[in-house]
Amino acid sequence: MQFRAKLVKWNEIEKWCDNIREKVSLSFRPDTIVGISRGGLVPGRILADMMWIKDLQTVKTEHWGLTATLDGKAAIKNRPILFLEKKRVLLVDDITDTGESMSLAKGYLSEFSPLEVKTAAMLHINRSKFVPDFFAEEIDNSNWVWFIFPWNVYEDLDNLSGRTMVSPMSTKELRSALKQDYDLDVDDNVLEQVLTVMERAGKISKSGSKWKKN
Predict the structure, then answer these.
(1) What is the C-alpha separation between 91 and 84, in angstroms, rounded?
(2) Taking CA 139 as the corner, what is the angle to CA 105 and CA 5, rounded to the nearest 5 degrees?
(3) What is the predicted pLDDT for the residue at 172?
């Protein structure tokens, strides 16, 4: 097994966001939510809805490259102008793994004179150098797993399938190989949809029942 991966379901996202909403409501009243793009965009929008916050902004960091692969040092992309002066801000991401993206983004927000910045992540890996103010679940590093969130299914399954498809495979054979390599359970229909998109992109082709990399 290369590493473990897990498909996250929407009901888990809703549960984690509601957990954060409840914790935030006990001690903090944000005026603005800033979602870290890309992973924090959907949780940020859900929390904005749950907390009746209309001011939703975003900042983009890049750190992870291909699935479960670090892409150098975390960096702010495009350096957007944010409107945070004298505002209480909740900075949101999906997960703090190394913590570098959250730490970098919080530092960037300070350039726009907010009154206060608190941080939140649905999941917190306890190896992270940065501990968010609010999180729904803490994951022990010994149980580390690559979480495939609903907004990242096609991208991650594309990357993992490409690594696993060392020889021509049927959809069912690839599904079994993904289980062996990553302990990942994927529905045949979902995997077939991803493979079809990969085929249209010219990454793979199909001969009979077998898929192969181009």
Answers:
(1) 11
(2) 90
(3) 93
Number of C-beta neighbours around residue 209 at 10 A: 11
* Beta strand 116-125 pairing with 204-207: unpaired
Task: Look at residues 3, 2, 9 and name the one whose alpha carbon lies nearest to residue 186.
Answer: 9
pLDDT band at 147 (very low <50, low <70, confident <90, very high): very high
Euclidean distance between CA atoms 109 and 156, whole angstroms: 29
CATH node for 5-146 = 3.40.50.2020
Please answer whether residues 74 and 101 qualify as being in contact, where contact means their C-beta atoms are separated by less than 8 angstroms.
yes
Domain layout of the chain by residue ranges: 5-146, 151-202
With vertex at residue 189, the alpha carbon angle to CA 186 and CA 192, rounded to the nearest 5 degrees, is 90
Burial class (CB in 10 A: 0-12, 13-18, 19+), 107: exposed
Q: Which residue, chain included where needed, has tokens 């957007």? A: 80
Q: What is the rounded distance in angstroms from the CA atom of residue 1 to the CA atom of residue 36?
A: 31
The predicted structure's pLDDT at residue 211: 95
Q: pTM of the prediction?
A: 0.90
156-193 burial code (b ≥16 CB/10 A, e <16): bbbbbbebbbeebbebebbbebbeebbebebeeeebbe
